[in-house]
Amino acid sequence: MALLEILKHPDPRLRKKSVAVEKITPLIQRVVDDMFETMYAAPGVGLASIQVDEPYSIVVIDVSEEKDQPLCLINPKITQSDGEMEEEEGCLSVPGIFENVTRAEQITVDALDRKGDPLQIRAEGLLAVCIQHELEHLQGMLFVDKLSRLKQQRIRKRLEKQAKETL
Ligand code: NI
């Protein structure tokens, strides 16, 4: 396995849209494994393929305390959503920024697992927030897109400054 580089906002590659996985191959499973390793090492609770410049529609998540409940979603689609909740979110691609975002409280997701078997999850709370956040990455979106324009400009400037300082 290998650690992958996590792209940072405002990297334009974070704006790409993912493409569906046609067939589960050893290469795809390796991407999944590398994404898990990268997410746990970061550390984070979720990671989407677009964040590590992989084109396929893959998300890895683990919101458990003990980090022992890995969830891999390939070609995920939200098929139902209910309610509304506001939670503070962060993102490995937007380091150091935490803001409140409003999302559905309960969702149903259809996907394939790491072996290519169909999977349906009914999620709520932190897991529901996390899945919605990661699925937006697959569409080239970031959670900061939901904030006011002024806040977005401030965040962008702050991250550009950080990036220069670490060069
Ligand atoms: Ni994120």
Rounded to an integer in angstroms, the radius of gyration calculated over CA atoms is 15 Å
Largest sheet: 5 strands, antiparallel
The residue fraction in helices comes out at 25-40%
**What is the helix/strand order?**
HEEEEEEEHH
Secondary structure tally, helices: 3
CATH class identity: Alpha Beta
What assembly state would you assign to the polypeptide chains in this entry? single chain
What is the strand and helix layout of this fold?
Elements: H1 26-41, E1 46-48, E2 58-61, E3 71-82, E4 85-89, E5 99-103, E6 106-112, E7 118-124, H2 125-137, H3 149-165
Antiparallel strand pairs: 1-2, 2-3, 3-6, 4-5, 6-7
The chain binds nickel (II) ion.
Structural descriptors:
single chain, 167 residues, alpha+beta, Peptide Deformylase, five-stranded antiparallel sheet, two-stranded antiparallel ribbon, 26% strand, globular, binds nickel (II) ion
Summarize the structure.
With 167 residues, the chain is an alpha+beta fold.
Describe the structure.
With 167 residues, the chain is of the alpha+beta class. It has one domain (12-165): Peptide deformylase (Peptide Deformylase, Alpha-Beta Complex), CATH 3.90.45.10. The protein is built from 3 helices and 7 strands; from the N terminus they run H-E-E-E-E-E-E-E-H-H. A hairpin with a 5-residue loop joins strand 6 and strand 7.
